[in-house]
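Hi all, a correction to my earlier message: I attached the wrong file for DUF4340 domain-containing protein. Here's the right sequence:
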Amino acid sequence: MNPRKNLILLLVLAIAGGAYYLYDVKWASEKKEREELRLKVLKGIDAKNLMRVSVDRKDEPYQIIRTEKGWRFVKPVDAAVDEEAMERMLKVAAGMKEERRIPKAPDSAEFGLKEPYLKLTFGIKGQDDIVLSIGDLTPTKEFRYASVKDGGVFTLPLNDYSAFNYKVFSLRDRSIVNLDTEKIQKIVVEPQGKASFTLVRKAKDSWEMTSPVQDRADSVETEGIATTLRWEKVHSFVEEDPKDLAQYGLAPAGLVVQLYTEPKGKPAEGFLLGAPKKVEEEEKGKKVQKTYYYGRRLSGGPVFMVAEKVREDLPATPFKVRRKVMVDYDVDHVTRIRLEKPEETVDIRRLEKRKWEIALTPAGGKEAKLEGRHKHIDDVMWDIKWANAVEFVDEPGGDLSKYGLDGPKAIRRATVWLKPKKDGPEERKSFILGPLRDGKAYGRVEGEKRLFAFGGKDVEKIFKTGFYLSDRRLVRVDELKDVARIEASFPGGQSVAVRRAGEEWRMEKTAGKEPDQGRIGEFLGIVDEIESQGEAAPGGEADFKNFLARISVVDAKGKTWGPITFAGKGTREHLFVQVGEDPRILKVRRDLVEKKLPAKVDDWIKKPESAS
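and the right structure:
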């Protein structure tokens, strides 16, 4: 064999062996050691096995431990830890990792680690404690120097420890009552010096009042009690272990709320609301007076303060949580509405989804048929459905005269017929109302003993006249896009006409001019809202000789509405109009029409852009 070749071969093998040792043995083992160290120290904290966290710092050091009921502070107070704050801390602990290792750091004091800014001790089940010391900021102020036992010095991102560095107040549970709202089955409210009331859950979103009367409860108001106590936060803690509750207005309390997770037995938790206290605070650079209330959990614990909003959101009377909707239904199921008043009876029947017929019968008169306007009738359906009682009389007795329900002359009745299923039976819901007295009218739902009262505004919205509910529009198009052409003429013989071209308008008369798209659009927006408000009184001030404008509207099918002539004079509330050859003078709302009516040719033409 060639000795030279053998020598070269041996040299290659030696280099390869050395490389293997360096890369695959020594360096790989060192890398593995570093990774194991990193995993063990910074990424090996298992949230399930973490049992204790101690935070040593100059201000407010604290310690928290895991218990059967969750995490709690043991220093400096005995209190529960906020669940969301604890989740953040566990997430941060599990994700801690060094950013950059400082090689051969000679002196930990150089990095602020001899007397660390912050020291975190993690007590892990079945393992030695992990102690993380956090020192000075790096020159870039984006990291801090940190170290663990036998782990050298490294840099740590600020976000990797900030979750532990909040004030104790921010980390402790500040919920007024820490109870899952969905588990609450019964609520008892006891206002001092007033009747207490009890609410019982019947289904997920359904509640019933069982005392002082048996009645439906307003689910939103009832759920609001639980959600207020669960999600509103304590403003401040006053005394951790109070001995004298009377000084805070908590013995007896002004309001007691008991929350039950079982219909029977003892309350799971609750809330005592005490006396108010005015506090001067700075807000946007100004001193303002705010009111807070003392409070405490029913189970005990510290006295704290809550915002005035909490007091406002907690009901102090049974009425607030009673269901105040008297007649509930799906408006799409309504087939007929009958409104009876001493002056007239309005009987409305649905012909199609948005088409109605009105039978109007004045007192002592004959029935007249009118076409109903869906917009107004739809409003009445919703107004009946959403009218809220302002008072209940649970035991009205036999004499109804004081409620105005003793004589038929003053009584109004609203009846709604429904057909929930196409082939099913028709249902009927009805109630009566007496006269308005002191801004309210008492009434009774058919088949019920108790009385209720509606406010004057609800009564007015429900009992509209047949004339109001009829279709009184001067231009009756289903949709504004059905308007194909508009023509206007003015005193002196001037006229203008525009025709729709897709989404825009083109000028037909006044050739060579560009139409003002915006002004035409404004007028178009009110065209199908111009309604007759009735005939003008004879001898009025209508001036049709000096009229404002004469408008004709043509729809896509070629039907012409008008011409509608707007008189030159009117009243403060109304303009006067005449339609076509009809000699009657009608009133229309001035506030709706006047500002959007293009009353001269120039109003229809686009203004030239001013030179810059």
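Sorry for the mix-up. The radius of gyration is 40 Å.
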